[in-house]
Write a structure and sequence with these properties.
This protein has about 240 residues and is an alpha/beta fold. It is about 45% helix and about 15% strand. The chain has a single domain (about 5-235), classed as Rossmann fold (3-Layer(aba) Sandwich), CATH 3.40.50.
Length: about 240
């Protein structure tokens, strides 16, 4: 067990919860959710922070609290929180577009900004932004969602280069991870015909589990991955 702290956003369920369970015995965790009612599980070595990322003011306050309370020991950030409202763009309400842009892209950018300030002082740290395969392939009725996920990949590559440009000697890494078809609440809503179509396209012949992604996150945080930086890691069973 280390005293290094890791922030995991969207940690109350699905992929975020799986990552939290994977890491809770090795790190001190800061678990984020939109509200206290979101958490139904209690994990060891963890504390909670709440903010509705669709509200820019709450994101600003969240970042200030993060720096004030954890700035001396924050080691990593996993930007996992995300929302999708699948719809044809011509019928997509502006409120839904704003929510996806704010939660999926603006909030991670602001959290990355805070983390980079902290890491620039400690000369070490890891940021892992959870993207999606649709950020590279696109997907009908997910145009805005796909755009936000593609943005996270570009953000990660750019920040990795910035860290190197601003720090002579450092161990600051920024990466993105793009899960494929993972069994979560989000994907469970897809019609069976759609699931069957994707399954036929996956060389590994199975859908991913949240644990598959959590295992990758654990590796990327470890010393064995210290030279993995500025890249996008696919966890998708070969689906493209």
């Amino acid at each position: 067990m280390t005293n290094k702290k890791i922030l995991i956003t969207g940690a109350s369920r699905g992929l975020g919860l799986a990552i939290s369970k994977k890491l809770c015995n090795d790190y001190q965790l800061i678990l984020h959710a939109s509200s206290p009612e979101s958490f139904t599980s209690t994990l060891p070595n963890s504390e909670l922070m709440f903010a509705d990322f669709s509200d820019p003011e709450q994101v600003t306050n969240f970042c200030k609290q993060l720096k004030k309370e954890h700035g001396d020991s924050l080691y990593a950030v996993i930007n996992n929180a995300g929302v999708t409202f699948d719809n044809s763009l011509i019928f997509q309400p502006e409120k839904a577009i704003d929510a996806m842009l704010n939660v999926n892209l603006r909030a991670p950018i602001m959290i990355c900004k805070t983390a980079m300030k902290i890491f620039s002082l400690s000369k070490e740290g890891v940021i892992i932004n959870i993207s999606s395969i649709v950020g590279q392939t696109g997907n009908a009725f997910q145009s805005v969602y796909a755009a936000t996920k593609a943005g996270l990949v570009a953000l990660s590559k750019s920040l990795a280069q910035e860290a190197g440009a601003l720090n002579e000697e450092h161990n600051i890494r920024v990466l993105s991870v793009s899960p494929g078809f993972i069994e979560t609440d989000m994907t469970s809503k897809l019609p069976e015909t759609e699931k069957e179509k994707y399954l036929k396209m996956i060389p590994s012949k199975r859908f991913g589990k949240v644990e598959d992604v959590a295992d990758m996150i654990s590796f990327l945080l470890s010393e064995q991955a210290f030279y993995v930086n500025g890249t996008n890691i696919h966890v998708n069973g070969g689906l493209f």
